[in-house]
Amino acid sequence: MEYLNRQAQRRFYFESWQGAQRGEPLTPLQQQVVAVVALHPEYHAIIAGGEALLEAEFPPEQGQSNPYLHMGLHLALQDQIRTDKPPGVAQIYAQLQQRLQGDHAAEHLMLEVLAETLWQQQRSGVAIEPLLYLERLRQL
How far apart are CA 87 and CA 70, in angstroms? Predict the structure, then answer.
C-alpha cells in the first residue's frame, strides 16, 4: 500500500470491511485487512463507524488502545512473516504458533515486541537493528 494519510488509511479499513460485508470482490490487501478486522470484534463498531470516526483519537493516557495502530501492526507483522524479513522471523512465529496453539496469540506476543521496537526507534531516531529485534522475539 502506498503511503496514505491517517484519514485515507482509516477509510481503507472501513471500505474494505464494508465491501466484505456486501460480498464485493476484494483486492489481496483488502482481504488481508478484512481478515485482521474479523479477528478483532471489539473494533467492529469503530470500523463500521466509517466517516464519522475518521478523526477519532485514542489517547493511551485515557486507557484507550488505537485500533488502527493495533491492526496495522498485525499487517506489518504478517508481512514480515510472509517475506521472512528480517530472516528468522517466520521461524520464530512458527515456534510460537506451535507453543501457543494459535496464530492470533502468537501474533499478539510478537506485536508487543514490534510495537516496543518501533517506539524505541521513533524515540531515538536510530534505525531498527534487525538482530536486536530478532533477539527480543526469541526471548518470548
Answer: 23
Which cell goes with 133? 529485534
Residue spans of alpha helices (H) in 62-102: 67-83, 89-100
Three cell numbers written together for 57: 483519537
97 phi, psi to nearest 5 deg: -55, -45
Q: Whole-model pTM?
A: 0.89
Asked whether 58 and 66 are in contact (CB, 8 A), the reply is: yes
Nearest alpha-carbon partner for 36 in 90, 82, 78: 78
Residue 109, judged by CB atoms within 10 A of its CB (0-12, 13-18, 19+), counts as: middle
Distance CA 125, CA 100 (A): 34
DSSP 5: -
Name the CA dihedral angle for 70, 31, 138, 121, rounded to a multiple of 10 degrees: -50
pLDDT in tens, 34-81: 999 999 999 999 998 877 777 888 888 888 889 999 999 999 999 999
